[in-house]
């Protein structure tokens, strides 16, 4: 099965990217989500996981530990609070501040947006190459050159 990165396949189904954490090693995963599912909490979790993959190293160690425990290791606020010797509310505040900080990084740097756009263009190049192989269509070759130029300009 061909899987694209965070794109709408049709009007109802999207492909989403998420991460998991096992012994401090992050791996990517993909799952499909129906557009009409209304699962905004899951959407938010996925978005924050992707933002963490891009900007996590910009956080201090304490924020990274709490974010990983809460979002990636699925610990409760109480479990994290007991482990760190702080209040549950303190953990909640750190999670909220860290989430806002990740969103702020994306707003300023737009790395996730740029990555998604480049990935889409490369996918189109691959599609056009396959079409050109089947029938020599010079308009497709021009489209490939244009996409390649766009990617090079962005990099």
Keywords:
2 domains; two-stranded antiparallel ribbon; 155 residues; disordered N terminus
Give a written overview of the molecule.
With 155 residues, the chain is of the alpha+beta class. It is built from six helices and two strands. The chain has helices at 40-55, 61-72, 77-84, 88-109, 111-134, 138-154; strands at 13-22, 25-34. It has a two-stranded antiparallel sheet. Residues 1-13 and 15-36 have low confidence and may be disordered.
- Arithmetic mean pLDDT: 77
Biggest sheet statistics: 2 strands, antiparallel
Q: Give me the side-by-side strand order of the main sheet.
A: 1-2
- What is the correct CATH architecture of the largest domain? Orthogonal Bundle
State the distance separating the first and last CA atoms. Answer: 29 Å
CATH class type of the largest domain: Mainly Alpha
Say what the CATH topology of the largest domain is: Arc Repressor Mutant, subunit A
Number of DSSP-assigned strands: 2
Helix content: 55-70%
SS-derived structural category: alpha+beta
Going by CATH, the homologous superfamily of the largest domain would be: Winged helix-like DNA-binding domain superfamily/Winged helix DNA-binding domain
Number of domains: 2
**What gross morphology would you assign?**
elongated
Instruction: Classify the beta-strand content into a percent band.
Output: 5-15%
Backbone CA Rg: 20 Å
Query: What order do the SSEs take from the amino end to the carboxyl end, as H and E?
Result: EEHHHHHH
Low-confidence stretches: 1-13, 15-36
Count of DSSP H/I helices = 6
């Amino acid at each position: 099965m061909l899987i694209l990165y965070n794109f709408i396949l049709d009007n109802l189904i999207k492909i989403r990217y998420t991460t998991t954490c096992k012994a401090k090693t992050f791996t990517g995963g993909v799952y499909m989500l129906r557009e009409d599912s209304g699962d905004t909490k899951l959407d938010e979790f996925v978005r924050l996981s992707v933002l963490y993959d891009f900007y996590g190293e910009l956080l201090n160690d304490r924020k990274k530990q709490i974010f990983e425990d809460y979002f990636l290791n699925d610990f409760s606020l109480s479990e994290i609070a007991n482990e760190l010797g702080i209040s549950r509310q303190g953990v909640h505040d750190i999670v909220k501040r860290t989430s806002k900080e990740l969103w702020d990084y994306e707003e300023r740097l737009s790395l996730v947006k740029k990555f998604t756009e480049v990935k889409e263009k490369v996918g189109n190049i691959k599609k056009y190459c396959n079409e050109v192989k089947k029938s020599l269509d010079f308009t497709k070759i021009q489209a490939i050159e244009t996409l390649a130029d766009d990617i090079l300009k962005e990099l």
